[in-house]
């Protein structure tokens, strides 16, 4: 029976020590990762390089410029100054309205691209904040779990020592030894030596 009790006590003590060391390691690793944690930069995004395709508008503007040149050529060959001025004015009105429409379309496309970039940036920031927050919470939970494991190990080790002490007192009592009597006997011997 004493052998089994001793083995049980030793096993409990060994388990407590292993748990304490494991908890210390987990807490230390969590602290180390928290200390090394770096927030991810939000400098670039999917829409940063977004540029609306203005090729059609640019081609149309080039065509309008060519038409202006043709109007000028036709007006120069067309007789009196009044006719030439009327032709140039009509040509400018037509091409000017077309240019305004094209520039308006280009502005709308650029505005939409800017709007998409802003939305993308906000979405990236929100996603990154959530990821970083979850990562920090996970590391803090790891530290807390390690500390709890260490605390449990200390408590279990203390219980093991108390069980060993109670077991030893019980064994001494079964063998007829009075622990207090042995303590008092030791005190009497000490007094005799100091008196002599």
Please write out the topology.
Layout: H1 2-36, H2 55-76, H3 81-174, H4 179-195
Helix pairs in contact: 1-3, 2-3
Question: Poorly predicted ranges (pLDDT <50, ≥5 residues)?
Answer: none
Q: Structural class per helix/strand content? A: mainly alpha
Coarse shape: rod-shaped
Q: Give the count of helical stretches.
A: 4
Cα-based radius of gyration, to the nearest Å: 45 Å
**What does the average pLDDT come to?**
75
| Total tally of structural domains | 1
Helix content: over 70%
In a few lines, what is going on in this structure?
The protein has about 200 residues and is an all-alpha fold. The chain has four helices and no strands. The protein has helices at about 1-35, 55-75, 80-175, 180-195.
Question: Could you walk me through the main structural features you see in this protein, from its secondary elements to its overall organization?
Answer:
This protein has one domain (2-195). Helices cover 86% and strands 0% of the residues. It has four helices and no strands. It has helices spanning 2-36, 55-76, 81-174, 179-195. α1 runs antiparallel to α3 (81-174) and α2 runs antiparallel to α3. The mean pLDDT is 75.
